[in-house]
Specification:
With 232 residues, the chain is mainly alpha-helical. It has one domain (58-227). The chain has helices spanning 10-22, 30-62, 78-88, 97-103, 129-145, 147-158, 163-183, 198-209, 214-227, and strands at residues 111-113, 116-118.
Length: 232
């Protein structure tokens, strides 16, 4: 370990040696298990690289649309914004936020028969399920990463609300916010946002995590700047 330049603590090495003196003999198939483990590790590494390449491509497409403005909202990252944008499509056909959440089926079903009228059934079945999944996935992210929605979720939980009800409520609120950001071509404004550079900082952080090439980073930054309102 010294020759390899690896830092270690003497007591840790001694503990390993003491254990080795009393350890059971190695398994006869240890070599095969090692080969399998290394093959699985290599497969995981390849899949991780493929996922990162796909996400870099997704980011390149997102910055060419006004949906990149969703990055100005705390708790929304590139992948979830792109997922939502891909399922919702162009914003122009939607007259208001309810048209989006209605298409996603974020409303309870109603059952009526003679004197029976149950207005608060499960979510409706006929909807765009991919859009619903994108909205509810974002709702989960906001409950975990957005302080405002964390507080609301805690408050609703103390009132005995079903977690599924909380998830739908957060999805509905995000749908309204997203409509105004994208349709109004504006960034999210709140005292907790640390300046106008927040959106670009988040995009830069994404590219650092994905080891994106410098040329692609500059291209995406320039495209994102074209989507920002001039006053920003």
């Amino acid at each position: 370990m010294r020759q390899a330049g690896i830092r270690f603590q003497q007591r840790t090495v001694q503990a390993v040696l003491d254990w080795a003196e009393q350890a059971a003999p190695g398994d006869v198939a240890a070599g095969q298990h090692l080969r399998i483990a290394l093959a699985l590790y290599d497969d995981r590494q390849r899949k991780t690289q493929e996922i990162q390449a796909l996400e870099r491509e997704i980011a390149g497409r997102l910055v060419q649309t006004p949906y990149v403005l969703l990055l100005s909202f705390p708790g929304i990252n590139v992948v979830s914004a792109a997922d939502f944008a891909g399922e919702r499509g162009p914003i122009e056909p939607y007259a208001n936020p309810k048209a989006i959440t209605g298409r996603a089926g974020l409303r309870p079903s109603r059952y009526q028969s003679d004197q029976v009228d149950k207005a608060k059934g499960p979510l409706v079945r006929h909807c765009n399920r991919a859009l619903r999944a994108a909205l509810l996935g974002i709702a989960d992210n906001l409950i975990l990463c957005n302080h405002h929605f964390q507080h609301l979720a805690t408050q609703w939980a103390s009132q005995g609300k079903d977690p599924r009800d909380t998830q739908v409520r957060v999805g509905l609120r995000f749908g309204r916010i997203a409509f105004h950001l994208v349709a109004g071509r504006q960034v999210f404004r709140h005292p907790c946002i640390p300046g106008r550079h927040y959106l670009l900082d988040k995009l830069n952080a994404f590219h650092r995590e994905h080891d994106t090439g410098r040329a692609d980073v500059l291209r995406d930054r320039q495209a994102a700047l074209g989507q920002l309102p001039p006053r920003e």
